[in-house]
Structures are given as structure tokens and as C-alpha cells.
User: Fold Tryptophan 2,3-dioxygenase from Streptomyces lavendulae subsp. lavendulae.
Amino acid sequence: MSEDVTYADYLRLPELLALQVPLADGVDDELLFIAVHQVQELWFGQLLRDLSGVRDRMLEGDPRAARAGLVRSTVITRALIAGIHPLRGMPPREFHAFRGALGGSSGAQSAQYLEIAALCGADWVRGEHGARAVAGLSPLERERARGRLAEPTVWEAFVSLLAKAGFAVGTAQERREAFGRLAAAPRDGDPVEFAELSELVEALVDHDEIWTEWRACHALLVERQIGGRPGTGGSSGVAHLRAAVHRRFYPELWEARDAGIPPAPAR
Assistant:
């Protein structure tokens, strides 16, 4: 690196700070609102790179490296949650002072969030719901989202790892039985990859759980700011966000949390 490169040069700080452009006049908290959401999108971009790597490591048959990537992704998502918290200090009157400047924009139009969901394999970004979400994007964003939908997903890559380890994975019931086997106490002669796959299952659940926390934090913040009013972009506001809180990227793992647990003794 050239000795002439400064901290501001490397981070392109003049260009970065110039991107915070409030649209309302005389409302200081609009800058805070912009900064928080820009930082969220920067982290989304990093998560897309990391989760693509997680998917690729699984496809290559490396559960240990995939787990390490998932752990980092979970830590980053915790940073996303912490990054929302500054907006708790913005009174509703301050938000409503510039809310009109947002026009038809809405967090539901975050193309990168939709890409993350598609990359993980979420079924709720496909079909009719996914078509509506993609329709609100720019042509370039729609092209990227459709590209993600055509890629192998984190979930598909995980199922491929199970198959490589010798598990039957053709049906949901077969996968549930595989999860139960991985959750059970180890047996003599179990291959080492069983332990690695078991740890990977927990990392996937951790990753899914932290996104539930992020969605809940977002819903609470919106309720704190607008109460029961409709949201921007034509959404129903808090009702829409509450309904989305418990969406899952990997629902089969949650449905199988009791797999491998011995049945309760009969009384």
C-alpha cells in the first residue's frame, strides 16, 4: 500500500459521509435514521458474502469451515440488532417530522435482505409473496434477486452434506430421522463427520434464531415510532412486521428439535 494513502482515503470517508443527505428541513434525527439504515445495508452486503462462502464450503464437503462462517454470520447479525438500538432514542414526534419525506420507500424494499433470505433457502421469498416483494425493486435489484433464487441455497447445501454422510434425505421424514440421529448420543463406530454435522445443525439454528431476534427488534422499534398506523410503502405497518417475526430460514430444523429425545416413560 502506498504511504500516501490516508485513513480517510482508504475508507473513502468524504464520499461515505456525503451519502447522508436528509430530505426534510431542520430535522436533526433524520441523519440518525439514514445512518442506521445505511449501516444495516453495509452489514447485509457482508453477510451475503459470508453466507455464500458458508454455502460453498458445504457444497465442497467441509462442515467445519461452514460452521465457522455461520458463527461469524451470527455475530454480525448481533451487530445488526445493536445497530438498530440508537433509534430507540428518537421520540415519535421526531420521526414524524420527517416521515413524509420517505415517500413510498419501505424497509420491505431492501433487496439485500431478500437476497439473504433467498440464499438461505427461505420458502417465503418464493411463490406469490416473493413475486410481490421482488416487484417493488428496481430492475437491477430484481435481476440480482432472481439470480439468488436460481442459486443453490444454504439449506440445499446442508442437505447435500447429509447425503454425503450416508443419510437418506429424499423426504422431510427421512431428514427428520437424520436430525434425530445427529442429536442422539454418539455410538461406537460413528464417523467423525457425525459430530461435525451435529455442531453444524446447532450453528444453523443459532443463525436462524438471531434473525428472529432481529425481526422482533425491528417490529418493536416500528411499533414504538408509529403505533398502529399504516407503514410506509403501503404496508400494514406493525401487523405486517409482527407476522414476519417467526419466519424461519430452516423450518425443518425447528420442527425436529424433539428428534432424538427419548420418549417420556409411561406412567
